[in-house]
Amino acid sequence: MTADLQLNADGSLRHLLTLDGLPARILIQILDTAESFISVAQREVKKVPLLRGKAIFNLFFEPSTRTRTTFEIAAKRLSADVVNLNIGTSAQSKGETLLDTVANLSAMQADMFVVRHAASGAPHLIARHVAPHIHVINAGDGRCAHPTQGLLDMFTIRRHKGAFHNLTVAVVGDVLHSRVARSQIHALTTLGCPEVRVIAPRTLLPRDVDSLGVHVHYRMETGLKDCDVIIMLRLQNERMQGALLPSPQEYFKYWGLTAEKLKRAKPDAIVMHPGPMNRGVEIDSAVADGRHSVILNQVTYGIAVRMAVMSLLAGSGVKPAAEA
Amino acid sequence: MKILIRNGRLIDPESGLDRTGDVCIAAGHIVALGETPADFHANQVIDATGLVVCPGLVDLSVRLREPGFEYMATLETEMRAAAAGGVTSLACPPDTDPPLDEPGLIEMLKFRTRMSPGPRVYPVGALTWKLRGERLTEMAELAEAGCVAFSQADATLIDTAVLLRALEYAVTFDLPVWLRPQDPHLARGGVAHDGVVAARLGLPAIPVPAETVALQTILLLARETGARVHLCRLSSRAGLEMVRRAKHDGLRITCDVGVHHLHLSEMDLTDFDANCHLVPPLRSQRDREAIRAAVREGLVDAVCSDHAPVNDDAKELPFQEAEPGATGVELLLPLTLKWAREMDVPLAQALDLITRRPARILGTQAGVLAVGRPADLCLFDPDQPWTVGRDSLMSLGKNSPFLGMEMIGQVKYTIIDGHVDFRRNNH
Lengths: 324, 427
Description:
Chain A has 324 residues and is α/β, with parallel strands linked by helices. Chain A contains twelve helices and nine strands.
């Protein structure tokens, strides 16, 4: 059903809500398009006119600086008009419903909504109710999905490793609460990655997580063995001590990525993190800043990937390469 | 008023009666069954050719939404919906606002239901004051006012000592206590079964032990106190197995399941359909199969609609923020028939689950088609297809997971206390 909601009748992308069920050809199309946008960022004039005259609304029902900023930069580089709305502090607190907010903004001639919401499935609900010409991009919903993050991570892996079919990838940390992890896992399995592992204490793994097509490891010692890619997840402050984990210190000792633990992975392994990092909790600074780390590249690629998604959804079909 | 129902397929789950014949009704009672006496002169004749004539349905959980939730539905609309569903007796849970925790509210509810035609209404009183799980209600007085049982509805009861005292106090007056087993800590914040779909969609989960841990506590306290406990809306295979052992050990308990849980599972959540946000959550396909089998086997005593009409505004929200529940009183019969067809269960056995057996739990003599009994009847066409839609449901709540789907079996007449309370237009 979700896949139907995301695709037009001709199989092209209409909304980007989740990577779950999205065909590999769409993922690859987005990654390929993003490649062509990398060069845009390196030019003196970092703009292409693909979305000129389009109105993009950043609808953030949950606070976020980083993701909102990268979407804003991406939209502006495509020459779109961007409106940022922090709904968490306005309409909803006045009692307006989600769909009323969306209807009001639609009446302001929006072409695209970039939605961040604390509840899983909120962008799906919006996508089901918007006019046919409006596109919805999920910028993170509850624990469900963060598809552009998942895509930029795939872009990063492809850039550094070339292909997916021979990789062992480990996702480490709070998978239970992570929309990023879910999007990464769906993308990796769709793109043909033969071994995806999750590494975390049992308290931070969803029940039946293996049904997502991953191998479960509780300990880093076994989980990191011969990995090509290690993706660290952020551990939220409020989860560092309590019933899920006893303390950040114990977490770091057993699941924090250190140079010592990294030795179990392949010598050319790359280390990723969606940010923002907790240094000394999930990752040691020596690793975060070390030669295996591609964490800052992820941020750069994130803009190209978001440009690709926006232009594929709402662009006139002009290839950015033609602009170069 | 004398009514002659002619040439119907008469089914009485209690006696095993299943034959074609007539039913004669006079002064609110069934006066003849099978052949019409020569001296019976009816004011009204209903041709029941092709229809099943059975006892009126008895639904153990129908929310009328009054007092307090009139923006969701009203007593009048939901009473009409119940009658359109063939229901002639219903129990309404105490989760109103204010909750049904004092005799005055029960008097008012009874007054309101007497003013409007429709099914017989049996209020279930709150077990604790304001359903807060802290202080007992005046159960004896509430029972005198008309409460047939006491429950927490879906409110939590955290303090086990209060539960023990509530059961002991109920035993004092031999009052039944209806409990839906759910551990408040294990269920906290959850909206979906802790399984593959919650893992995939990232929905906060409620594990099966939320049911089984609470169930174990209830069973132990029921054994300790000897209270008459009815277990509401079981949702898991493990829970059903515990009930099986408890019944085998001779414990005085009964249980029901919601009719939606006979057909749906966590798999129905995959597109975030808020109409599938139910309490308890739809569990795995394995759990659903266990429920279907346990109902056929007779381990489950009754099937109810757990009718919860919800206004569109409260449903058109992200799944976890949407008000839980489904409208269902008009689907109790067709969904039970669907289960029976799929499971090869005889019609009389299926009807037993929504007539005689829930009537026993309510403590009424309803649910029987026999001479001398009150004339509460349901006449339905077992082969009539119809589509569940916003227009075809009389309930103000249009929140059904089955919207747009075809049902087979439609109520044509509902007779309550010897009067035709509902008659479908197309008949």
